[in-house]
Each structure stands twice: as structure tokens, then as C-alpha cells.
Amino acid sequence: MIHFIGTPKIETQRLILRQLVLKDAQNVFDNWLSDERVSDNRVSPAHKQVSETKERLARIIADYESKEHCYWGIELKVDGELIGEIDLYDFDRATDNCEVSYSIGYKWGNQGYGSEALKAVVEFGFNYMNIHKISAAHNTDNPASGRIMVKAGMGQEGIVRHMIRNAKNQYKDCAIYGIFQEDYIRRNDIAEIRVIET
Ligand SMILES: CC(C)(COP(=O)(O)OP(=O)(O)OC[C@H]1O[C@@H](n2cnc3c(N)ncnc32)[C@H](O)[C@@H]1OP(=O)(O)O)[C@@H](O)C(=O)NCCC(=O)NCCS
């Protein structure tokens, strides 16, 4: 059974994963949600106005009331900059499986932050929440996302053709990845995290 503990603060070597707050809206908008270089690899379109970001954040923040909501902003320890987001979602009680998704602002790409955040959340999902399997999908024309899944121990399970149609009306083939809790534990490549209960 999944052990839900909400969205506690998680520290990694260089990052703090923490709950988002409304006053993050401008940074979320500026740093990734208004940027088409990021949104082209997500399902929803880039935000045009910060009011859209505020509405989205208000929904995420309201959901923190539930212990079953796992949605982190990704903050750099070095300067406190909010550089991205990561969440566990679609918890399935029949299987104890869930999905993960994430985004890192373009300016902070290719510095290992996506891998560090994903490894931390995979560790949290398996060793703190007792999830059975974590899955994710990325557009096949976005190989960096597949790369960080591999670095977090996930394996490719196949490609689904035209799995999504993005905001620009383009169909995208998606590569599906997953990892089982037992394989993660057997792999013994545990991410070093510090979980601070909220
Ligand atoms: C995908 C994403 C989260 C990666 O974050 P990141 O912080 O850049 O990731 P990292 O720096 O930890 O790792 C990126 C890896 O991809 C590799 N990579 C980058 N561009 C690549 C490319 N075009 N082809 C193959 N590999 C690539 C990097 O070399 C690196 O691997 P390495 O550490 O083995 O060298 C980030 O690019 C992003 O948010 N993109 C837009 C939104 C998105 O794609 N979300 C996920 C939807 S599934």
C-alpha cells in the first residue's frame, strides 16, 4: 500500500525540493512556464500571462491539503533560485503505481539538476512512500528527458506512436519508461536525500 505523506521538503546535494507558494508565480512564469523551449516538450502550452501561472499555482497549492499530493518546486541551494518543478501523480490504488513528470528552466539545463531532482523523487517514492512502480513518458524528439530517466535507473518499455498532440497541434511519439521498487532497491544506487517533514 502507498504511504502518502504529502510534499515534504527534500534536500539533495545542490537542491531543495519544496512546496510551491503563490509568491513563486513570477519566477515560475519567467523561469520555465512562459518558455516555449520548455513547454514544447510538455503537454500544455506556454503561459502568455502570469495570471495563468497564478491560477495554476493556486490549484497546486490548494491540493497540498491532501496527503496524496506530491508536487515540488526545485530550488537551488546556492542562490535560492526556483529553477523547475517535479511531481508524482496518477497514483493507482489497484497497483500502487504512479507517474513522474518534471521541468527545468532552459537557462539551468544540462547542469545535472534534472537528474538530481528525479533521482531524489524516485528515492522518495520507493523508500518513503512504498510505491510499486514509477513510470514516465517523453517525446522521442526530447532525448534529454530519456537520458535523465536512464540515469535515475528507469528502463525503456516501448514507444507509443502519436501518444500526444501538443499545443501546436503536432502529434508526438512518446517513449515510455518505468522502474520497479524491487529493482531500484536491488540496484543499490540510493540517492542521498534528507526528507524534512512539513
Ligand atoms: C528534460 C529536462 C528535465 C532535463 O533536465 P536537465 O537539468 O537538463 O538534465 P541533466 O542536466 O540532469 O541531464 C541531461 C542529460 O541529457 C543529455 N542531453 C541533453 N541534450 C541531449 C540530446 N539532444 N540528446 C541526447 N542527450 C542529451 C545531457 O548530456 C545529459 O546527460 P549526461 O549527464 O549523461 O551528459 C529539461 O531539459 C527540461 O525540463 N526540458 C523541458 C521540459 C521537459 O522536457 N520535461 C519532461 C517532459 S517528459
TrEMBL record:
Instruction: Tell me the superkingdom of the source.
Output: Bacteria
Report the GO molecular function annotations.
acyltransferase activity, transferring groups other than amino-acyl groups
InterPro entries named in the record = Acyl_CoA_acyltransferase, GNAT_dom, N-acetyltransferase
Q: Name one Pfam family in it.
A: Acetyltransf_3
Q: Give start and end of each N-acetyltransferase domain.
A: 14-154
Q: Which UniProt keywords apply?
A: Transferase
Organism of provenance: Mesobacillus selenatarsenatis (strain DSM 18680 / JCM 14380 / FERM P-15431 / SF-1)
| Name the record gives this protein | Acetyltransferase, GNAT family
PANTHER family of this UniProt entry? GNAT FAMILY, PUTATIVE (AFU_ORTHOLOGUE AFUA_3G00765)-RELATED-RELATED
